[in-house]
């Protein structure tokens, strides 16, 4: 009798903690590890694929999802348009209405409700250069701070590459 | 005297904290149910017309089968609009990745059809009322990641469920709430029966409506 109620109490506590944690990660902020070297100078400057513990952990804030207002140079997490189970982290280069040059030497206008994302490492990155502009609805949050490892704690700064985008008139 | 005041204050503070925590806990619980298990949506607009009315329809949607990848052709889904990220819309899935979909390009003006293959990781969605619907025919196939849920059950209004009784007018027309796939089958059957009794073939009716 006694042990049963103890077990029930424990379950209730874990369930409450889980529900609160899930709400916070859904609505406010979460921490995600960054894998791979596609954002190389900003995250994971040395690509040591063997040791997963040296991956950077990044704080993602979700308040930007209330209005979907982003600016050039923000680093965002989004679901891959070709595989919904995969999440990618890239930098926004172009917003709706901008004209942007594609690797096929075209200049295209980014459609309404879409954005153009690219990795900081131009050599190895799966981004809008392969799959084109992505809908803003796929974005799940904005990276603000590197929180782990301790020697790399710093803000994620905005960087706007020159001569890539010509803003809408 | 001051000590007693302090004691009273601590008791009040404790009480207030426990009450706030209870409220926060229940709000969190509601959020988790609403975003991960079930949600109730009120629907408006002409794009799903025979299935959902212009206004006043409510539906229960579940939020887990799209995460498991179990959305197929024929399901009615909730998804974020690719054109306006803050808007949520309801459409019917016509094809998943790899399917080839044939659609009428301009149903108001011509019968011209086009066939495309849905790319990897995308779905093709259309409204049931193809004459007045903004869907994949306008903005192309949408990424699967935009899905937010699948419609499960529809009811005509919240009040009707609350009152729980049948209004007199509803003896005349069939009650339209229930599981969506079953509703579709019933609709199809009654339509074909009607056409058979009138001695018309379905394509003739289609043309008459267009003209």
TrEMBL record, chain A:
The active site is at residues 38, 90. This is Mitochondrial inner membrane protease subunit 2. The keyword Ligase does not apply. It is a single-pass membrane protein. GO terms for biological process: protein processing involved in protein targeting to mitochondrion; signal peptide processing. Residues 8-104, 109-148 form the Peptidase S26 domain. Keywords: Hydrolase, Membrane, Mitochondrion, Mitochondrion inner membrane, Protease, Transmembrane, Transmembrane helix. It is found in: Mitochondrion inner membrane. GO terms for molecular function: serine-type endopeptidase activity. CDD domains: S26_SPase_I. One of its GO terms (cellular component) is mitochondrial inner membrane peptidase complex. Belongs to the peptidase S26 family. IMP2 subfamily. Its main location: mitochondrion. It comes from the Eukaryota.
UniProtKB/TrEMBL annotation, chain B:
Its main location: mitochondrion. One of its GO terms (biological process) is signal peptide processing. One of its GO terms (molecular function) is serine-type endopeptidase activity. Keywords: Hydrolase, Membrane, Mitochondrion, Mitochondrion inner membrane, Protease, Transmembrane, Transmembrane helix. The active site is at 47, 91. The chain crosses the membrane at residues 21-44. Pfam families: Peptidase_S26 (PF10502). It comes from the Eukaryota. Heterodimer of 2 subunits, IMP1A/B and IMP12. Belongs to the peptidase S26 family. IMP1 subfamily. Catalyzes the removal of transit peptides required for the targeting of proteins from the mitochondrial matrix, across the inner membrane, into the inter-membrane space. This is PROTEASE FAMILY S26 MITOCHONDRIAL INNER MEMBRANE PROTEASE-RELATED. It comes from Salix purpurea.
